[in-house]
Amino acid sequence: MITLPEKDGILGQLNEPLLEIKNLKKYYPIKKGVLSKTVGHVKAVDGLDFSIYPGETISLVGESGCGKSTTGRAIVKLDPPTEGSVLFEGKDMADLSKGELRKIRTQMQIIFQDPYSSLNPRKRIGDLLAEPLLAHKLASKEEVSKKVDQMLETVGLTKFHKGRYPHEFSGGQRQRIGIARALMLNPKLIVCDEPVSALDVSIQAQVLNLLKDLQKEFNLTYLFIAHGLGAVKYISDRIAVMYLGKIVELGKTADIFSKPKHPYTQALLSAYPIPNPHLRNRERIVVEGDVPSPANPPKGCRFHTRCPFAASICKEKEPVLSGDSHTVACHFPLS
């Protein structure tokens, strides 16, 4: 059982997760030569275990290339996992038939980072929003038109926008359209793949507020992938910190920000700007060295090549996530 952070004065105690990730791996083959012989693999995601509970927002954070977006795409099977299980409402998606998988896909949607490249420039907005309903035969043409109008108004646009093309909108408006498209099938889980990183700061705030309002209105569950710790702190119930394809720390947002246990998490948070002038002179932790290649990750703890506290055991034995509500994969967790 997990206790979620307080929402509207209610502490949610939930027994059954909406989504369970077990030993999730995604490897990409490295080809060489005329015959394209496989000489190795890029281990983009290398053994993730976590659960997402109904109504919560869990965020994945970490440096570029740590496997955040790959994780999101593997969960919704846009890029099928190499190994491991993805259980949605207790059903292993690997065991489903094509028909069952098609049906369950209506309950799992994704919002992409770039709202322009994810929208077909040749189609009007109304057609883009209608397409999911028509493809799954969930409504008649008359019902679809009404649903499109309602959804556009829900995300802050109007029904008069549906005759326009994507290039006629600003970046923030295009992302609202992307959100509307994800909501058309009334999903339970939405993977938000860096949905605000390509937007101006003022627009980021508007989109984040919209996502929070929609979560309450439609009882949504989010997997939120992001770089910006400000956005993550604002929207998340729990945070999972990733490094080189692994989760190194997982806990409630307040615990991660106030008492980080992993040296990598502490370094990330030290770079987070704080508006309080009394805290601006806090120590900045600079992680030296480059991120190792995911094709050849270090033995033992993957962070030991850059960790200022690394000992001999860190170079030999890989730590596992341990703890109760706040877990960390470190031989010498910070107090």
From TrEMBL:
<dbReference type="InterPro" id="IPR027417">
    <property type="entry name" value="P-loop_NTPase"/>
</dbReference>
<dbReference type="InterPro" id="IPR017871">
    <property type="entry name" value="ABC_transporter-like_CS"/>
</dbReference>
<dbReference type="GO" id="GO:0005524">
    <property type="term" value="F:ATP binding"/>
</dbReference>
<keyword id="KW-0067">ATP-binding</keyword>
<dbReference type="InterPro" id="IPR013563">
    <property type="entry name" value="Oligopep_ABC_C"/>
</dbReference>
<dbReference type="InterPro" id="IPR050319">
    <property type="entry name" value="ABC_transp_ATP-bind"/>
</dbReference>
<protein>
    <submittedName>
        <fullName>Dipeptide ABC transporter ATP-binding protein</fullName>
    </submittedName>
</protein>
<dbReference type="GO" id="GO:0055085">
    <property type="term" value="P:transmembrane transport"/>
</dbReference>
<dbReference type="GO" id="GO:0015833">
    <property type="term" value="P:peptide transport"/>
</dbReference>
<feature type="domain" description="ABC transporter">
    <location>
        <begin position="19"/>
        <end position="269"/>
    </location>
</feature>
<dbReference type="Pfam" id="PF00005">
    <property type="entry name" value="ABC_tran"/>
</dbReference>
<dbReference type="InterPro" id="IPR003439">
    <property type="entry name" value="ABC_transporter-like_ATP-bd"/>
</dbReference>
<comment type="similarity">
    <text>Belongs to the ABC transporter superfamily.</text>
</comment>
<dbReference type="GO" id="GO:0016887">
    <property type="term" value="F:ATP hydrolysis activity"/>
</dbReference>
<dbReference type="Pfam" id="PF08352">
    <property type="entry name" value="oligo_HPY"/>
</dbReference>
<keyword id="KW-0547">Nucleotide-binding</keyword>
<dbReference type="InterPro" id="IPR003593">
    <property type="entry name" value="AAA+_ATPase"/>
</dbReference>
<keyword id="KW-0813">Transport</keyword>
